[in-house]
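Translate sequence into structure tokens.
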Amino acid sequence: MLLAIDRSKPFNPAEFLGQGFSIWRGPADGGGMEGEGEQDSRSLALQEVDFSKVLLETCFEGEETWITGEEKLRRLKASGHIRLDARIGQALYEEEGQRTLRWLHDTHGIRYVDFMGTILRSPDGDRDVLFLYRGDDGGWDRDYYYLECGWRAHDFSAALASTP
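Result follows.
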């Protein structure tokens, strides 16, 4: 399942999620408004993604049943995987017929996938990430989730192995 990513138009959180959203800038313990945007530059370079090769990570260790989003992000970074960015999530959501999302559900039972390659700043100043979820009607929708909250075993993050 190959998905083309149009990089001519960068991800605009305010247009996709609502007024006041932006890309987090600077350190996690800052205000999110100054410094470099927190995105995985390796993901931003991707022009297409083969979803048959995408890793769906929970980052759980041992008997864990939940972790915070910040811990999940830390573990994903430490893994060296390419964390797929929000523009890829937008491309999935806007794909005609949401074919790739439907394939992820039909093939792997996926009902939720987040994109830790772009850290968002909410209008309230919180650190969030974009996620897509499958509704009861079979269609997919978008939302965002606070990184300080607890994340469960069915909360998959989309990533790619860093080596070919």
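Note: DSSP finds five helices and twelve strands in the chain.
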